Automatic annotation (TrEMBL):
Gene3D superfamilies: 1.10.8.60, 1.20.5.5270, 3.30.230.10, LON domain-like, P-loop containing nucleotide triphosphate hydrolases. This is Lon protease homolog 2, peroxisomal. The active site is at 748, 791. PANTHER family: ATP DEPENDENT LON PROTEASE FAMILY MEMBER (PTHR10046). The gene is LONP2. Its EC number is 3.4.21.-. Residues 603-616 have a biased composition (Basic and acidic residues). The keyword Ribosomal protein does not apply. Residues 594-616 are annotated as: Disordered. It is found in: Peroxisome matrix. InterPro entries: AAA+_ATPase, ATPase_AAA_core, Lon_bac/euk-typ, Lon_lid, Lon_proteolytic, Lon_Prtase, Lon_prtase_N, Lon_prtase_N_sf.
Length: 857
């Protein structure tokens, strides 16, 4: 580097101590400055100095412990490199430090350390006399020979690399133009060398010595390269091209792992193997033509790209995804409808309608293998087995199963992926799922489609439209992939709790199958056939260790859970199993302490003991002095011990002990619910107060009910507190719908509000075993409402006896299981008069009640 010849370095130099690397003249190095001494040097010399001289510093390799860089002279290396600071960058993360870019000028020797605090300053003597050798003719014979030798080796080394890479061709040019005496320093900093070797070169003040030391290093590098090429002979040509060379780091290093030709060669050697494999995979992946084109283009780019470029990793990830995607890989369907029926029946009790529809679907698939659509959507309360049926469908078909949870997804790139221009971009869930299952015809369960959100990042439901449309999804384009993927072989099944929040366009693409909640008897069967065995297995228990009688299960169903599905029922069994597991484990521990006279001897004798004597309740087993007798019986005492006092009491009759209360039936996404409507009246100015978070439609129903009652007050002899037929005269009415924190809306509470107010104004009690639902009109007609099955099941769960439903909902009763129908009386009402007659004992006659009309006489 001839800059060294024109600059005379100052006689005193501040010293920068480097711990990880050695700077040689003619090379550039990026180094982190974080020790106190070095930081101080940067601050007071480099950042404050204005002259060129003030940017010249001495870079000394420090072989001592970095923590004690203030140690005096003996620990410092005697020879260093005077360097020009080209760039200083400060940063506070992760701790305050500077990054310094320095370029080496020439060697110097420390004559005397002048001070060592706050940073060392030394009197120095310049060693390299570069201006002496400006041409080959200045070398003596031996030196000339050595320099020629070194030059040849350098050329040989460079030629082993791919000349089409700009950085390599630049180095080739530099070899010709640089003064020969600077070659040892420059080449040593470029090829693979250890710090120790670099230090030796730095110490080699004499040119001859320096040449002699550098040549073996070059030869070693060349041999290494040859060996590497031999091992990769078949793809020699490719390899030569694959060796990338980064100009920016050509002659410097910052990290603890110094940059060198050999490093590149080794890393890229490994990497080029990978790239070769990747290329091979692309060729054999049988991807469609369009995708193949994109991949070929990308791999070409990748080969030319330096590894350090962020895009390198991006492109590589992309290509890896492309080769992993199952473009043409699929499983063969096992379509045996009889087997499917058996499997579905074995896995799931009840759900007849759902199973029937699923079997129909599978049967059609059997007849027409490339069936397009429809997309099934199971809608029902939580825990009724929607997800689990989806899994069974995959099992029956012998297909891979993948569940995509859509709850809370509010970014459309979750479905469609991010464009590759984004940092951290990745494919959407559909493509990810395909990559995971590795076949192009899995069963995808889109769980909770009703809980898709919307945000500024777009509407994921809109992105799903393309996925689910059988006419379009053969060319689904994920933004990340940017080429079409055929989704037509994927079997999509969606689940939701309600259709109300599914966008109409999405709903239109799916065939909705309602999955209603279970009745008590079904839950009982599901519990004993599926849930209990599953929980026993999960807790490592056997039926010989625990016995849960049907009465206990019934108690759990009625008094510890109130749900349409069976999920919390399953959790309760889990809690019981855990408690029993503790007892069993304790029992095993205390077995040897067992009182022989009372304990049954061996398995055989156990089997002969009658059921009653064999089982022992858990509260007895709780006695720590004795191990429990098996099986542990879960009776109602044990249940109370484990699950605590019952959570739900049968409270219906208590709450209906005064006028102004009626039971309505509501539908929620969690299934049907019974709902108490309460009314009271007080002196006032005819105002109606409604509480319980009611929606507009429900408020309107309340106004309708009042109006109808006021207009029929005379007919039914309804009076206010002072006996007037004008019900709102000097009277305020308050209507409350308990569970006040839950928002309620819909017209179906109309009949309940009328009944409740009729009870209030007539002073008569509504029958405590009656629940009702129905919309009302101003003329007193009762209109049909939805969710009848769930509502009826809720009434049945709550132990009510009569259900009043609109006449036009009679057809919905067909869906009600027979045993529920047998337990309940159904009353079809066409008008409010019929509702009132059914809701009050002895009917709601139009006759005057003597005690109420006497004031008029
Ligand atoms: N009919 C049934 N027969 C056997 N097991 C059932 C039945 N219904 C539900 N289960 C069991 O109940 C549990 C909950 O079912 P699953 O997770 O499929 O409910 P889900 O309807 O998908 O609920 P969500 O809407 O909350 O996702 C599972 O362990 C499942 O095996």
């Amino acid at each position: 580097m001839d800059s060294g010849s024109s600059i005379q370095i100052p006689g005193r130099l501040p010293l920068l101590l480097t711990h990880e690397s050695v700077l040689l003249p003619g090379s550039t190095m990026r180094t982190a400055v974080d020790t106190p001494g070095n930081m101080q040097l940067v601050r007071s010399r480099l950042l404050k100095g204005t002259s060129l001289k003030s940017t010249i510093i001495g870079v000394i390799p420090n072989t001592s412990d970095p923590a004690s860089d203030s140690e005096p002279l003996p620990a410092l290396h005697r020879i260093g490199t005077a360097a020009l600071a080209i760039q200083v960058v400060g940063s506070n993360w992760p701790k305050p430090h500077y990054t310094l870019l320095v370029t080496g000028l020439c060697r110097f020797q420390i004559v005397q350390l002048l001070k060592d605090k706050p940073f060392p300053v030394a009197e120095v003597q310049q060693l390299d006399r570069l201006e002496q050798f400006t041409s080959k003719s200045d070398f003596n014979e031996e030196l000339g020979e050595l320099s020629e030798q070194l030059y040849k080796y350098a050329v040989q080394l460079v030629e082993m690399l791919d000349m089409s890479i700009p950085a390599v061709s630049k180095l080739r040019r530099l070899l010709d133009s640089l003064p020969r005496e600077s070659l040892p320093d420059i080449l040593t900093s470029v090829i693979r060398t250890t710090n120790k070797e670099k230090l030796q070169i730095l110490d080699a003040v004499g040119l001859e010595e320096r040449f002699k030391m550098t040549i073996p290093l070059l030869v070693r590098q060349i041999e290494g390269l040859k060996l590497l090429q031999k091992t990769r002979k078949p793809k020699q040509d490719d390899d030569r091209k694959l060796v990338a060379f980064r100009p920016s780091r050509k002659i410097g290093q910052m990290s603890s792992r110094p940059f060198s030709l050999d490093n590149i060669e080794e890393e890229e050697g490994e990497d080029s193997d990978d790239i070769f494999m990747l290329e091979k995979k692309i060729k054999t992946s049988s991807m469609p033509e369009q995708a193949l084109k994109v991949c070929t283009k990308e791999i070409k780019r990748l080969k030319k790209m330096p590894q350090s470029m962020p895009e390198y990793a991006l492109t590589r990830n992309y290509l890896e995804l492309m080769v992993e995607l199952p473009w043409n890989k699929s499983t063969t369907d096992r379509l045996d409808i009889r087997a499917a029926r058996i499997l579905l029946d074995n896995d799931h009790y009840a759900m007849e309608k759902l199973k029937k529809r699923v079997l129909e679907y599978l049967a059609v698939r059997q007849l027409k293998s490339n069936l397009k659509g429809p997309i099934l959507c199971f809608v029902g309360p939580p825990g009724v087995g929607k997800t689990s049926v989806g899994r069974s469908v995959a099992k029956t078909l012998g297909r891979e199963f993948y569940r995509i949870a859509l709850g809370g997804v509010c970014d459309q790139s979750d479905i469609r992926g991010h464009r590759r221009t984004y940092v951290g971009s990745m494919p959407g869930r559909i493509i990810n799922g395909l990559r995971t299952v590795g076949v192009n015809n899995p069963v995808f369960l889109l769980d909770e489609v009703d809980k898709l959100g919307k945000s500024l990042q777009g509407d994921p439901a809109a992105a799903l439209l393309e996925v689910l449309d059988p006419e379009q999804n053969h060319s689904f384009t994920d933004h990340y992939l940017n080429v079409a993927f055929d989704l037509s072989q994927v079997l999509f099944i969606a689940t939701a709790n309600t259709t109300a929040t599914i966008s109409p366009a999405l709903l239109d693409r799916m065939e909705v199958i309602q999955v209603p909640g279970y009745i008590q008897e079904e839950k009982l069967e599901i519990a004993h056939r599926h849930l209990i065995p599953k929980q026993l297995e999960q807790h490592g228990l056997t039926p010989q260790q625990i016995q849960i009688p049907q009465e206990t299960t019934l108690q759990i169903i009625n008094r510890y859970t109130r749900e349409a599905g069976v999920r919390s029922l399953e959790r309760k069994f889990g809690a019981i199993c855990r408690a029993v597991a503790v007892k069993v484990a304790e029992g095993a521990h205390k077995e040897n302490k067992l009182d022989c006279s009372e304990a049954p001897e061996g398995e055989e004798s156990k089997e002969h003991i009658s059921e009653d004597t064999k089982a022992e309740s858990i509260h007895k087993a709780a006695d720590l002095a004795l191990p429990p007798e098996m099986p542990i019986l879960i009776d109602h005492h044990a249940l109370k011990d484990i699950l605590g006092p019952p959570m739900y009491e049968v409270e219906v009759s208590e709450r209906l002990s005064q006028p102004g209360v009626a039971i309505g039936l509501a539908w929620t996404p969690l299934g049907g619910e019974i709902m108490f409507v309460e009314a009271s009246r007080m002196d006032g100015e005819g105002q109606l107060t409604l509480t319980g978070q009611l929606g507009d439609v429900m408020k309107e129903s309340a106004h309708l009910a009042i109006s109808w009652l006021r207009s029929n007050a005379k007919k039914y002899y309804l009076t206010n507190a002072s006996g007037s037929f004008d019900l709102l005269d000097n009277t305020d009415i308050h209507l409350h719908f308990p569970a006040g924190a839950v928002t309620k809306d819909g017209p179906s509470a109309g009949v309940t509000i009328v009944t409740c107010l009729a009870s209030l104004f007539s002073g008569r009690l509504v029958r405590s075993d009656v629940a009702m639902t129905g919309e009302i009109t101003l003329r007193g007609l009762v209109l049909p409402v939805g969710g009848i099955k769930d509502k009826v099941l809720a009434a049945h769960r709550a132990g009510l006896k009569t259900v009043i439903i609109p006449k036009r909902n009679e057809k919905d009763l067909e869906e009600i299981p027979i045993n529920v129908k047998e337990d309940l009386n159904f009353f079809m009402a066409g008008c409010l008069e019929e509702v009132l007659n059914a809701a009050f004992d002895g009917g709601f006659s139009a006759k005057p009640r003597l005690d109420l009309v006497n004031s008029k006489l």
